[in-house]
Fold this sequence. Notes:
Blueprint: H1 12-62, H2 65-69, E1 71-75, E2 81-85, E3 92-100, E4 104-108, E5 122-127, E6 134-138, H3 145-156, E7 161-167, E8 175-184, E9 191-197, H4 199-202, E10 227-230, E11 235-239, E12 242-246, E13 250-251, E14 258-262, H5 268-272, E15 277-283, H6 285-309, E16 312-313, E17 323-324, H7 331-345, E18 361-363, E19 369-371, H8 373-391, H9 397-409, H10 414-473
Antiparallel strand pairs: 1-15, 2-14, 3-11, 3-15, 4-8, 4-10, 5-6, 5-9, 7-8, 11-12, 13-14, 16-17, 18-19
Helix pairs in contact: 1-6, 1-9, 1-10, 7-9
Amino acid sequence: MAITGIGSGMDIQGMVNALVNAEAAPKSAQLNRLEKATTAKFSGLGQFRSAISDFQSVVKDLNSASLFEKRTATSGKTDVFSVKADSKAVAGNYSVQVFTLAQSSKVALQGFDDPAASLGAGELSISFGGDEPLTIDLADEASSLTDIRDAINKAGKDQGLSATIVNDPNGESGARLVLSSTKAGDGNDISVSVATGGAELQKLAFTPPPQPAPGAEPPAADPKAAKVITYAQDARFAIDGINMSSATNTITEAIDGVTLTLQSAQSKEDLEKANTISLTVGEDRAGVKSSLKKFVDGYNKLMSTVGSLTKVTAVGGDGGTPLTGALVGDASVRSFMSSIRGDLGNPAGTSEVKILADLGISTQRDGTLKIDDARLDKALDENFSQLSGFFTGETGLMARLENTVKPYTQTGGILESRTKGLQNTLSSVDDQRESLTRRIGKLEARLLSQFNKMDSLLGQMNQTSSFLVGALSNLPGVVKKDN
Length: 483
């Protein structure tokens, strides 16, 4: 409902609003257009910078000489041995035989009827490899197998010696201490001597007998007698017919740059037939190919983002206003793309691999890259040694790309400076809107005041007019005409 003037009957508020809106509309429309364009460009630059950063990560990964120095190592039977190689390894093929694994010593000492029975005080000396035997001092005359076990575990914890009690439920073997060592290799068998102690404690003394020949029948023995569960021994194996041994099952020095981890000995039948297992060391071509595919995917993703930000789409035929991307015609985008294309097109190095096309990586009509797998595989087979020089180093392709990308992504760089400028523009739009609001408010107040004064004046004039009409109509001789 319009609010009319009391004196004039005119829609004062409506007239004031029309004048105020007419004054504010051009500037408000200008600010809206500026804000919309600036916000779109701000968002577009953010997407552009994010896409460049993702591409930069891919470039850094490929700009690493170690990538081309990696080696693959393959075992013909991973259940017998596994293998890995580092950059020192030389490509080649080897024949391996595994006769025995390295193992540590484990012995079961004399069995006793009652594990809680007292064995008396005394001193035990346990040898299991190393410089000094482990001394166990039993001061309590009531020391039992349990006490001795606990004392051994406490003293031998840091030296790789442990003890447990195995108790035969049928009583035939009795309860006995089982000692285990973590020290593998020849000469590290566990032996126990009793320096001081009574007859019961003396029963724990044990010196391992010589290791029987393979296939020999063990001699019959008292079920409670001490015995060897496993002898400490070296791993024994052969590489290309050369016999070798190791105190551990992880072997790092047999082949330069190659680590063998023995898992099990070959079967008796394989050893009798002198069957060997292949070990192959090669260049990590699959890893390099995977990295190249990631590079191509990263570049194409960048091209897709740039394409969407600079695309112009026609709408509604010839008369329609086209839809434009946020960065259409942007100088930073044009400069970046020109530099990137230049880097990809300029030859690098003096070898047979000078440009990406020599690796089967070509540029398509839409600007994206495509890999010809057959050509790439052939290039990896024939020119693998040249790839590191082409991609890495100060003059390599990836270094050139990094130098091109860095000014756009670094702190204080091109895109950050542009983004800050756009932020300032948006802040200025807000300030101008506030200024416009204040100015329009003052204009509205002034117009309302003026129109209200006019309305009051009209009201007074109407009152005067009515008074004069009434006064004149009452004068003598005035004849009123009937309507």
